Amino acid sequence: MTQKEETMLEDYLPFFEELSETDKEQIRSHTRLMHAEKGEMIHKGNEDCLGFLIVKKGQFRSYIISEEGKEITVYRLFERDMCLFAASCIFRNIDFDIWMEAKEESDYWVIDPGVYGKLMETSLPVMKYTNDLMASRFSDVMWTMEQILSKSMDKRLAAFLMEEAENEGAEEITLTHEMAARELGTAREVISRMMKYFQQEGFVAASRGKVRILDKNALYELAEGSLR
Amino acid sequence: MTQKEETMLEDYLPFFEELSETDKEQIRSHTRLMHAEKGEMIHKGNEDCLGFLIVKKGQFRSYIISEEGKEITVYRLFERDMCLFAASCIFRNIDFDIWMEAKEESDYWVIDPGVYGKLMETSLPVMKYTNDLMASRFSDVMWTMEQILSKSMDKRLAAFLMEEAENEGAEEITLTHEMAARELGTAREVISRMMKYFQQEGFVAASRGKVRILDKNALYELAEGSLR
DNA sequence: CACTTTCCGTAACAAAGTCACAAACCCGGT
DNA sequence: ACCGGGTTTGTGACTTTGTTACGGAAAGTG
Fold it and tell me: May I ask which residue range the UniProt record assigns to the signal sequence (chains A, B) (predicted)?
């Protein structure tokens, strides 16, 4: 790892300055900078215990998956976001499996779970930060839960399309019906039907694997209350 | 608060022995023993900041509620369980509203949120315990999410009925269709339809506000994979 | 008992999920 | 350019779940 990268890692960790010099060194020497291609899975349920994760560049989606293979995204990670659940082995009370996939080409740091765990057990600022992070993800999941509970699929899809356009910084987004279904925890056919409706109404134009947003306002009105 | 109650509170808090004498005294003097009648709501979304909660006796359900009034239970609290979310004001990253209701006549302690918050900020064991607790509730919620995502309503209802029977320690449980619907996040009519089916199949016998389990094995088979 | 409230049953319809299959599209190889 | 195989989308038929709108039965109250 180069000096430049080290410096940046420190910037990304809010508690870094509060650590002792030995702890800082521990982190520096047990952090890997990694790279993921678009679509690459970096964490698969309980198959591994990767470590504490910091997004340097790019975007990830965290999702759960049922035995039958049905997926739903529970939260997203963007630049500077961090996640504990790829290191669930260091938390004895966590017994769910989460999957993580790069939404685009991404760079991320991984702090060794053993090192982070030990640090957490001995440093109040780190433990506090960990707690804040957990609370933050908790809120994400609760938000998702509320959406599932109370919003109809057309509203959720409209919100999702707007977010994707926002993320990509373009009117046209790269997205198959299958992908949207996985995000929202529904079936591909349901998305197809709604896309057909959205097209008929002139909200979007679609071609294979692409969706172009035509009427932002109409989608916005539909999505009302489902936007973060 | 009598000597006897104080002694018991200490038994319920795993980190108590690790505290300084002044911190112990802080907790002792800022904890109230409270009582709730069956059906009583002890926490309503963001209306209050009750404090850190410890169940002494009884049972609570924590649920979320949509704008339209649709509810779903996200986790339960039993004897010795604790909960942070009635003190969400001390966590800046928590921005969801949770409601809590006594499922039966219950006794519980409430530690003042300010005192708990301060203690947490200064004591590593308390912060660690808080973190464990958060992780534990997180797991509960993720479990609920998976159920919603992948289990059909009949399986979820079967599982719920068996749990209720387990909790009450009896074959006959006190439960209206409305109550079951609120637990599972569905509509009363859906429960009615399924109860009718369960009765026709001879799984249960029902009368107004009561359900008696007749065929435990059949329900168990249905519920397979939806039992905690 | 009459009256009110709560609980349950049900029909009719809408939304969403499942299953099955076919058509359209894209890409690489010839 | 054409062919072939994989991927993506379209669609119909059907099931399950959610919604709306009732009415009636059961329990509680004065």
Answer: none
Question: pLDDT value at position A5?
Answer: 53
DSSP A81: -
Neighbours of B7 (CB within 10 A): 9
Closest Cα in chain B to A184: B149
Looking at the structure, do residues A84 and A133 belong to the same domain, yes or no? yes
Number of other CB atoms surrounding residue B175 within 10 Å: 20
Does residue A215 carry a pLDDT above 60?
yes
Please indicate, yes or no, if residue A228 is contained in any of the structural domains. no
Structural domain boundaries, residue B197: 151-223
Is the minimum distance from the CB of B189 to strand D below 7 Å?
Answer: yes
Q: So what's the pLDDT on residue A224?
A: 86
Token pair 């169940």 is found at B55
Does the residue B49 lie in any domain? yes
Split into its structural domains, chain B has a count of: 2
Angstrom distance (rounded) from CA B182 to CA B69: 10
Q: What is the CA A200 to C1' D20 distance in angstroms?
A: 28
CB contact under 8 A, A139 and B93: yes
Can you give the CATH number for the domain in which B31 is found?
2.60.120.10
* A135 lies in the same domain as A35: yes
Q: For the segment B155-190, what is each residue's pLDDT rounded down to a tens digit? A: 999 999 999 999 999 999 999 999 999 999 999 999
Q: Which residues contact A98 (CB under 8 A, 6 or more apart)?
A: A43, A45, A62, A63, A64, A74, A85, A86, A88
Q: What is the pLDDT of residue A8?
A: 82
- Last residue in a domain, options B148, B178, B197: B148
Nucleotides of C under 7 A from a protein CB: 6-12, 15-20, 25-26
* Residue B187 pLDDT: 98
Rounded distance, CA A147 to CA A161, Å? 15
Instruction: Kindly report, residue by residue over B193-211, the tens digit of the pLDDT.
Output: 999 999 999 999 999 999 9
Whole-number pLDDT of residue A226: 86
For residue A63, list chain B residues with Cβ-Cβ distance below 8 A.
none
Q: Please, where are the H alpha helices in chain B?
A: 3-12, 21-29, 113-122, 124-150, 153-168, 177-184, 188-200, 216-223
Q: What's phi and psi for B181, nearest 5 deg?
A: -60, -40
pLDDT band, residue B89 (cuts 50/70/90)? very high
Compute the Cα dihedral for B173, B175, B177, B182 and give only its sign: negative
Contact B211, B195 (CB under 8 A): yes
Residues 6+ apart with CB under 8 A from A77: A53, A55, A59, A60, A61, A62, A83, A100
Select from B68, B150, B186, B228 the residue whose CB has the most chain A CBs within 10 Å, as the one to mutate to test that interface.
B150
